[in-house]
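If your schedule permits, I should be very grateful for your opinion on a structural question. What I wish to show you is a protein chain and, alongside it, a tokenised description of its three-dimensional fold. Would you kindly read the sequence against the tokens and tell me how you understand this chain to fold? Here, with my thanks, is the record as I have it:

===
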Amino acid sequence: MQGGKIPWKPLLLTFGSLLGFNFLLKTLGFNMTTFLFMAVLLRAVERKRWPVSIGVALSVALGAYIVFEIGLQSQLPTGPFGFFGF
């Protein structure tokens, strides 16, 4: 916060992204939704360059897949595309 002002734009973008994550989770699956969520946050809120945003989002989605699907053997929504939807 600068001078006691609330930064509304990043706050609303983050909240909207969380709502979008919630609504798209079953439709697109966990991996694709996590990738999109992280890419939007990094590009729109943090103002990272596209290569950085995509690389970090892909790493986070892949890391979450490894931890939850492989390590913990949990069943996450796969969506209509299977693993990542590519």
About this structure: The two ends are 39 Å apart (CA to CA). The helical segments are 8-28, 30-45, 50-71.
